[in-house]
User: Which sequence fits this backbone?
C-alpha cells in the first residue's frame, strides 16, 4: 500500500486538455447566468443507449478517466432521468428500445434537452433500415458526429451546446 | 459434445436447421408447410435462446421445448411476422398492441422481485435483469436481452460480401477487431486464398491489443464495483493509453476498418508501450493482491462450477476461470508466438479477475513475438459461392461466424457472439449472492449486449 501512495505522489495529476479549461473559463463567464438559471450551476446528464454497437458507451465511460475527468467541468452523469438536464442519446433506436427511451425522456423534468452522440442517432450511420429499427423521433437539440466521437469530441460537443444555449 | 450454435436458413423450398458442435455439424431439413423440429433444449441449455430466436424469426416450432416465450420480439413487436424468411422484405413494421412478457419468477412467502433495466444507473448497454429475492439473497435471476436487436442478419442479406464489412465490424464495438478477423477469414476461404503468415501476425497483434484494452477496462471496473475506486482510476488510465496506441496504429480508437489486405503496424510504438504496460500491470497485481477487503468480496462470489460451465458450453474467460481449457488460440501457430493457456479453478469473481491479469501479461508477450516487418503481398480473389465458417477468440471468448454466398451475394449471415452462450449460464452464478454483488459478477464476465442482440 505504501508503494501505491509513493507512486501516486510521483504520478501527480494526469488530466489533460488545458485548452478546454481556458475555453471553459470563457464559456463560464459568457453563460454564467444561464447555467445558474437552468442547470443550478452544473450539468446533469442521463446517458441512454437506444441500440448502439457499444463504442459510444465506451467513449462516454472514458470521459471519467483521469485524462478527461469530465466532472471537473461541472458535468456529471446521473443514475436517474429525474435528476437529469440533458439526455445523451446513442444508437439507431431499435423497435425494442423505442418506448423505453421515450419513457426515460418523459421522466426527465422540464426544461430538458437531447444531445445525440454518434452518427447512428442521426441517419443510422453505416447501418440501414430494417424491420427491427424504428429510428429516432425525439427532437435533437445538439448533434455530436462521429463513429464513435472520441471523448475529446464529446466534451467539445457538450461545451458547444452550452455555448449556443438559448 | 459442446454446442456452438444452432441456427436456421431459408432455402426457398424448405427451411434448414444447422447445429454446429465442436466435433460435428448436423443439418436437418424442415418442411415449410409444417415447420416443426425436435428441441435440443433439454440436453443443451445454451440452445434455449437459439431456438427461441429461430422461432421468432422463422416461425419454426420446437417439439419438447420448455420455453416457448418470444425472445427478440418484445412486448409491442408484431408477432405475426417472420423477418428472416426470404419472402419477408419489409423495412418498416408497425407496433403491435402491448402483450406482457411473462418473467420467470420464484413464488413463496416473502419472496419479492427486483426488476433492473433495461436502462441502467450507469453508462451501460440496455438489458433487463429480473431478480427474485428472499431478503438479501438472490434466489433466481432472469436475464432478458434483445433491446438492441437491430436485425443485422437481415440487413446484410443480398449485398456483395465486401459491402457488409462496415456493418460487420460494428456488430460489437469492443470486439470489432475479432469480428473483422473472422470476416476476413471467411473472405479468404471464399476466394480460395491463404492469408500470408506475416499479415496474420499483424492481425493477431491488433486482436491482442483489443483484448488488452478490454481486460484493462474490466480490471478497473471489477474492484470499483467492490468499492475500491483507486483501481478504476489506475486502470482506466492504462486502458485509455492502450486505446490511444490503437488509434495511432490503425487510425481509429476501436480499430474500425483496420483489418485489410494490407496492414502496417508501428511496432516500435507498440513494443515501447507494452513494455511500460507490463510494469504497470505487475504493479497493479501486487497492489491489489494485498488488499484484503477486495478479496473478501471477490472470493466465493459469483461462482460458476466446472460442471455448470460444461453443461452450458461456456466460452472465454468465464470458462477458463472455471478450469475449462478452451480457447480458439490454443493451437500450434499461437503457441509458437508464446501463447499460454491461463485458467483458474473455482470460477469465482476472483478467478476471473486473476485470469484477466494473466491474459494481459500473456498478450504483451505475444505482441512482442508477433513483431514483424515482413510485407507479403495479399490479394483477395473473387468470391466463390458456398458456405463458410470461422472461429476467432475475441476478448470475451470464442466468436463463431457463418456466411453463405449465393450468386456472389450474401445469402445468409449468422454470427454467434461468445456472449450469446455465456449470458445463458450467467444467471446460474448468481444464486445466493446478494444484489450488491451483481455488478461485480456482471463485470467479471463483461459480456456484450450489442454482440448478443445483433
Assistant:
Amino acid at each position: 500500500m505504501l508503494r501505491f501512495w509513493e507512486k501516486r505522489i510521483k504520478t501527480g495529476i494526469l488530466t489533460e486538455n488545458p485548452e478546454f479549461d481556458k475555453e471553459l473559463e470563457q464559456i463560464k463567464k459568457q453563460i454564467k447566468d444561464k447555467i445558474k438559471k437552468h442547470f443550478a450551476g452544473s450539468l446533469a446528464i442521463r446517458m441512454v443507449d437506444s441500440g448502439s454497437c457499444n463504442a459510444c458507451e465506451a467513449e462516454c465511460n472514458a470521459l471519467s478517466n483521469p485524462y478527461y475527468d469530465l466532472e471537473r467541468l461541472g458535468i456529471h452523469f446521473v443514475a436517474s432521468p429525474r435528476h437529469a438536464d440533458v439526455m445523451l442519446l446513442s444508437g439507431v433506436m431499435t423497435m425494442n428500445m423505442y418506448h423505453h427511451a421515450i419513457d426515460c425522456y418523459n421522466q426527465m423534468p422540464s426544461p430538458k434537452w437531447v444531445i445525440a452522440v454518434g452518427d447512428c442517432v442521426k441517419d443510422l450511420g453505416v447501418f440501414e433500415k430494417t424491420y427491427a429499427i424504428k429510428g429516432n423521433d425525439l427532437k435533437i437539440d445538439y448533434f455530436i458526429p462521429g463513429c464513435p466521437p472520441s471523448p475529446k469530441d464529446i466534451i467539445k460537443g457538450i461545451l458547444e451546446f452550452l455555448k449556443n444555449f438559448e | 459434445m459442446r454446442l456452438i450454435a444452432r441456427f436456421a436458413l431459408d432455402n426457398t423450398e424448405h427451411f434448414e436447421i444447422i447445429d454446429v458442435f465442436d466435433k460435428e455439424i448436423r443439418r436437418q431439413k424442415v418442411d415449410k408447410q409444417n415447420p416443426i423440429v425436435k428441441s435440443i433444449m433439454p440436453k443443451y441449455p445454451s440452445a434455449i435462446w437459439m431456438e427461441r430466436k429461430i422461432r421468432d424469426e422463422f416461425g419454426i416450432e420446437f417439439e419438447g421445448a420448455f420455453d416457448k416465450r418470444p425472445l427478440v420480439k418484445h412486448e409491442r413487436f408484431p408477432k405475426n411476422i417472420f423477418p428472416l424468411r426470404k419472402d419477408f422484405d419489409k423495412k418498416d413494421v408497425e407496433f403491435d398492441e402491448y402483450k406482457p412478457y411473462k418473467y420467470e419468477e420464484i413464488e413463496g412467502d416473502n419472496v419479492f422481485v427486483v426488476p433492473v433495466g433495461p436502462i441502467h444507473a450507469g453508462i451501460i448497454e440496455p438489458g433487463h435483469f429480473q431478480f427474485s429475492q428472499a431478503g438479501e439473497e438472490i434466489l433466481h435471476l432472469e436475464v432478458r436481452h434483445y433491446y438492441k436487436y437491430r436485425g443485422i442478419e437481415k440487413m446484410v442479406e443480398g449485398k456483395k460480401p465486401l459491402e457488409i464489412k462496415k456493418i460487420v465490424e460494428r456488430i460489437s464495438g469492443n470486439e470489432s477487431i475479432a469480428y473483422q478477423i473472422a470476416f476476413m477469414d471467411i473472405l479468404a476461404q471464399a476466394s480460395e486464398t491463404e492469408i500470408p503468415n506475416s499479415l496474420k501476425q499483424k492481425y493477431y497483434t491488433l486482436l491482442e491489443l483489443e483484448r488488452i484494452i478490454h481486460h484493462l477496462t474490466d480490471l478497473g471496473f471489477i474492484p470499483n464495483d467492490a468499492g475500491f475506486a483507486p483501481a478504476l482510476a489506475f486502470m482506466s488510465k492504462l486502458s485509455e493509453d492502450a486505446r490511444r496506441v490503437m488509434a495511432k496504429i490503425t487510425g481509429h480508437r476501436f480499430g474500425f476498418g483496420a483489418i485489410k489486405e494490407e496492414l502496417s503496424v508501428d511496432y516500435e510504438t507498440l513494443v515501447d508501450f507494452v513494455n511500460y504496460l507490463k510494469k504497470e500491470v505487475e504493479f497493479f497485481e501486487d497492489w491489489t493482491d494485498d488488499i484484503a477487503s477486495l478479496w473478501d468480496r471477490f472470493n466465493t462470489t459469483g461462482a460458476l462450477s466446472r460442471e455448470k460451465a460444461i453443461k452450458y458450453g461456456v466460452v472465454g474467460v468465464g470458462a477458463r476461470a472455471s478450469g475449462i481449457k478452451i480457447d480458439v488460440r490454443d493451437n500450434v501457430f499461437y503457441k509458437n508466438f508464446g501463447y499460454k493457456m491461463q485458467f483458474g479453478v473455482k470460477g469465482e469473481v476472483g478467478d476471473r479477475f486473476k485470469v484477466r491479469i494473466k491474459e494481459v501479461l500473456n498478450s504483451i508477450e505475444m505482441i512482442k513475438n508477433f513483431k514483424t516487418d515482413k510485407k507479403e503481398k495479399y490479394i483477395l480473389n473473387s468470391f466463390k459461392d458456398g458456405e463458410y465458417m470461422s472461429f476467432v477468440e475475441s476478448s470475451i471468448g470464442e466468436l463463431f461466424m457463418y456466411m453463405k454466398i449465393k450468386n456472389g451475394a450474401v445469402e445468409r449471415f449468422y454470427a454467434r457472439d461468445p456472449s450469446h452462450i455465456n449470458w445463458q449460464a450467467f444467471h446460474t452464478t448468481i444464486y445466493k449472492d446478494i444484489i450488491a454483488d451483481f455488478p461485480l459478477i456482471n463485470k467479471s464476465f463483461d459480456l456484450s449486449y450489442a454482440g448478443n442482440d445483433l
About this structure: The longest strand of chain B covers residues 398-406.
